[in-house]
């Protein structure tokens, strides 16, 4: 395995609800503060779930041009801002001709996850061209020039590639709510397989719009705790009653280890494994045994030859639906065995909500920071234990704890189950 | 890694439902591009489309699944079944041994337009329970995985028109990491009013009213493309596993693949074809094939003059030094562009061409543009083919190239 190309994280950028940038995000989640509130983007009165974790986002104030804001959906704008921060953090000087630390543009890839792409823009534009649903044959005279850019979400990968002059493989990954783990996993594979030395890998989603809220309303996947928005997201707590919609983006700079070493880059962590499996069971349902997620965890650990005992932290999917939290608890027990009883596991969705495809990358970012800084973010709002969810969920208060290995897991509509393993650069390999 | 084998093909395309139906229609040069049926596309300046007219969803999809899914997914479910049948593939005992890795461009358009209309016309309670699973880009992959019991690492890539090739590129990574069989490719169904309007804003659609005037890649009168629907799903297998289960036929080998991005502009291609040519070169190097060994190139064939010129520049940059010009054809001209489904269908077409030693010509290529170093195929011809390159591009600058080889020992 000497010649195996290893992948490290050298930059992190975050756009998350309730905060500004990576450090704001980290401060917020380690303070156990929640960003869930009554929806302000539209009048939610007629909706079952009326709370969400919204980002107070203004692309113009965050470095985007008027044209970039004009042509792009919010999900692309947030991805651009997160990527800017990640690249600045990495110290890689993209587009600086001749700079010693400028990566070879042909060797830079982009893997951007998104579950629902430009759904917000598509809905806003639909309202005008259909005259608020009156017309089936929509009226082209009211169409935006950039509807094609909204129809196909690969525009997000294009915008990042153009922004940083990345000529390597680029793709949008859209596997529902595991998109953000899968996009980072695919990015790591590009590096491992020798197709890129640097990859901008992340995810973005902006689903707080009427159509997205309505479709989760009808299947009662989202919470109806409308009278107490700050405490609406309660993963693993016996009182949990559905997820809280969120939005946001995170982008990581993934880099081949020697490439990072050669330029003296600071390394947050190594990506030592990634795996995904399908449950082939139901588009939205989960079996309580957690079998396929456990398989993904086991395979991902095996890629880095990591024993379950080495895992100190599991960043949970923890959406706060009854079936998810039970499923996931079972998956962690099944894959880690006795070590599950000692592992710390928390869900930051308790604070930043569930931003569909984006959250996977936001959670990997949180996990990378936890490994790097020796602090585990808590599960906010966790008060009443559920006998079926009996692991250590790091209730309410962040914990100072050095971990060598952490896992982030995700589960999504379509049956996708994904796991990614991050290891501290100071970990001693056993 | 030894080359993956294509062991099954399922086609749902304007040219027909079924791989042989598609091929027969293509070889006969039957027009599949016709006036749009079902809605008034003239409002969007559009007269023609490549609609799949022979597709009876109920023949392929259970009533329960039909109400839960969009036409795009019906086509994926049908094509996946056809591919597995063609391969004689039944789910192995190890459910993790099969993956579903499809491309999608625009998701469940028509289903979603109905639901969003209900929302805005009548309110949130009119949105049905299946919108959340019918619209999103992962719907077809998820439904195929669930219906067929495939639990292997599965995924969805979105690179607009290049998606069909890219799904094969990602499937190779899945196989390298231990999963022996992957369903790849994809379908697309963007022929409803809102999705058509969205596509029309690209400015790349032909507004011509007669098929012979509309989608004419590499012709001097090229004026845009025609939108089509459908696509193809193929089964790829690791050779050892395919042999172990007694595979009865191998369509071809996936010998090489590469992808690059122009990274030039959010819509316009780079004014040179450097990155497109680089994708082709990388794929040839990956396959261990020299430009001289390539018998045929299936082009992206955008049908937009500037894009056509850039594609010919890229091909000439790679193949221009050959003693004999490389034959280039664009069979998508018969079906319209099926976005992610189109590049998947092109792979199917390339494999059929290799099997029979027939190169389908480019439709309506009456007055070819100047193309030094390139042999544009204007009408079907007989030619022995052992190595074929398939090219695809996605709006915004995605360039992908795939190298296919005829299985060893096979001749047309």
Helix content of chain B: 25-40%
**What is the string of SSEs of chain A from the N terminus onward?**
EHEEHHEHHHEHEHEEHEHEHEHHEEEE
**The first-level CATH class name of the largest domain in chain B:** Alpha Beta
Tally of individual domains of chain B:
2
**Rough outline of chain A:** globular
Poorly predicted ranges of chain B: none
Walk me through this protein's architecture:
The complex is a heterodimer of chains A (430) and B (412). Chain A has 430 residues and is α/β, with parallel strands linked by helices. Chain A folds into two domains: 7-262, Peroxisomal Thiolase, Chain A, domain 1 (3-Layer(aba) Sandwich); 271-422, Peroxisomal Thiolase, Chain A, domain 1 (3-Layer(aba) Sandwich), CATH 3.40.47.10. Helix content of chain A is 32%, strand content 19%. Chain A has 13 helices and 15 strands. Chain A has helices at 21-31, 66-71, 74-90, 119-129, 147-151, 155-164, 179-192, 210-218, 257-262, 291-303, 322-336, 349-352, 357-373; strands at 7-15, 36-38, 51-53, 108-113, 170-173, 198-205, 245-246, 248-256, 269-278, 311-315, 344-346, 375-376, 399-400, 405-412, 416-423. Chain A has a ten-stranded mixed β-sheet, sandwiched between helices. A three-stranded mixed β-sheet of chain A has the order 2-3-7. Chain A has a two-stranded antiparallel sheet with strand order 12-13. In chain A, a hairpin with a 3-residue loop joins strand 14 and strand 15 (416-423). In chain A, helix 3 (74-90) packs parallel to helix 6 and helix 7 (179-192) crosses helix 13. By secondary structure, chain B is α/β, with parallel strands linked by helices. Chain B has two domains: 4-244, Peroxisomal Thiolase, Chain A, domain 1, CATH 3.40.47; 256-405, Peroxisomal Thiolase, Chain A, domain 1, CATH 3.40.47. Helices cover 34% and strands 20% of the residues of chain B. Chain B contains 13 helices and 16 strands. Chain B has helices spanning 19-28, 63-68, 71-87, 109-122, 131-134, 139-148, 163-176, 193-200, 239-244, 274-287, 305-319, 332-335, 340-356; strands at residues 4-13, 16-17, 34-35, 48-49, 98-103, 155-158, 181-188, 230-237, 252-261, 296-298, 326-329, 358-359, 374-376, 381-382, 387-394, 398-405. In chain B, the strands form three sheets. In chain B, strands 1, 2, 5, 6, 7, 8, 9, 10, 11, 13, 15 and 16 form a twelve-stranded mixed β-sheet that branches. In chain B, strands 3-4 form a two-stranded antiparallel ribbon. In chain B, helix 3 packs across helix 6 (139-148) and helix 10 crosses helix 11. The radius of gyration of chain B is 20 Å and the shape is globular. The chains are: A alpha/beta (430), B alpha/beta (412). Strand 5 of chain A pairs antiparallel with strand 6 (155-158) of chain B.
